[in-house]
Amino acid sequence: MGDKTFPHVNVDELAQFREVQQLAYRCVESVGEMLLLGMTEKDAARLLTEWLQDHGVRDWLHKPFAWFGDRTAFEGFSGLSHMAGFNLAFFPSSRRLEENMPVILDVAPILNGVIADVGYATCIGVNPILEQLKDDLAEHRELIVITDDDAYWLDDDLPHVRRWAQRGQTQFAA
Which InterPro entries does the UniProt entry name for this protein (predicted)? Predict the structure, then answer.
């Protein structure tokens, strides 16, 4: 195996990335709490856009997305053959939110030239599969950060870190 070359990260810039990442998470968590049964994916995406615009965002890596129910599995989303490689299936639809449906909210704001891309899973009601997936992810998160030289945790105040703390799983927290 050859030498691994990692991009240089300027420690002074981490605060800017942390700020935009926190903004993105506040957005998806806030909008997640605003979701109502009967709303469409388009309604949720509009709320994400408005929330970020209200907080100073004017540019995007990609516009906010929302997916409900089986669309969270991205079935039929492959085959990037439309719009210069971007499948129209990714765009929010008129799918209506029902109780116990999984939801993914995805935002990628650019603020002062800094980008954060956040995907957030939630549910109105109870979805045992989503809960199991969150638990499984928490158990494997520690594999993502190998050493301090290989990757950086931008923030300890993220949904998965709070979830570990609530469950007493401090061994996974950064």
Answer: Creatinase/aminopeptidase-like, Pept_M24
Pairing of strands 59-68, 114-115: unpaired
Report which secondary-structure segment, H or E, holds 102: strand 102-111
- Strand-pairing partners, residue 108, are 62
Helices (H), 99-158: 128-140
- Written as tens digits, the pLDDT of the chain (174 aa) is 455 665 666 777 778 888 999 999 999 999 999 999 999 999 999 999 999 999 999 999 989 999 998 888 777 666 555 545 556 677 888 999 999 999 999 999 999 989 999 999 898 887 777 777 777 666 666 555 444 454 444 445 555 566 656 666 544 444
Q: How far apart are CA 147 and CA 141, in angstroms?
A: 13
Length of the chain: 174
The half-sphere exposure of 139 on its side-chain side, counting CA atoms within 13 A, is 6
Residue 83 region by backbone torsions, left for phi larger than 0, else alpha for psi between -120 and 50, else beta? left
143/11 Cα distance (integer angstroms):
23
Alpha helices in 35-110 (DSSP H): 41-54
